[in-house]
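Database export, one record per block. Field names are fixed; values are copied verbatim from the stored entry.
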Amino acid sequence: MTRIVYSMLSCVSFVALSAACAGDGDGEVAAAAETQAGPAITRTGDSSASVITSFHGAPLTSPGLELRGSTASGAYAAASYRVATSSNTGSQVTVTPAAGASFIYMLLGSGSHYTTQQLRLQRIPGSSDLQAATASGNVACGPLPSGTATTVTLTLHPAARTFDVLLGGAASRCTALPLTLELPVVGFAMMDASNENYGGLVDFTDLTVF
């Protein structure tokens, strides 16, 4: 198990594929990376991403991330992390979305196209379900309630070329889905997409890669 490694990740190589658009990831990135001792962050408009060391007044055992997304079209924020080592068996994060909030979480691989470079989980505007993106479309995994801290586990099965999503440690409807991510895993990212109505407050804690 690998806790997050604070090493700058190229915003061009990963975040630029997805930061501007929640659909196909081919949009243009207009903002420069913010230099900080932590994740690589890109943002534009009124959306922001920031490292947090406490949550609801309690100190965190390792730093987390807070997204404050604007719902205006064109505004986005993304934070990307590089991991030094990974056994390519998955990742885990605790997600606490505010009411009406939407976000994208991506496990990042070694491919050259967005379908082989990222495995995307998302909560879209107007829904409280967590979805997993696959080559054949989005699959609703199950509820990700607002105002509740939910552990989301993404488990990869490289030999079978499938993946599972667990919610709160329990199996979800996203089980044995086809895996197109090209291994090895090199990092992960969280994003408020630039699509209209994406946004809201989301906290990510317990960031882990297996």
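Remark 1: Confidence is low (pLDDT under 50) at residues 2-19, 24-37.
Remark 2: The longest strand covers residues 58-69.
End of record.
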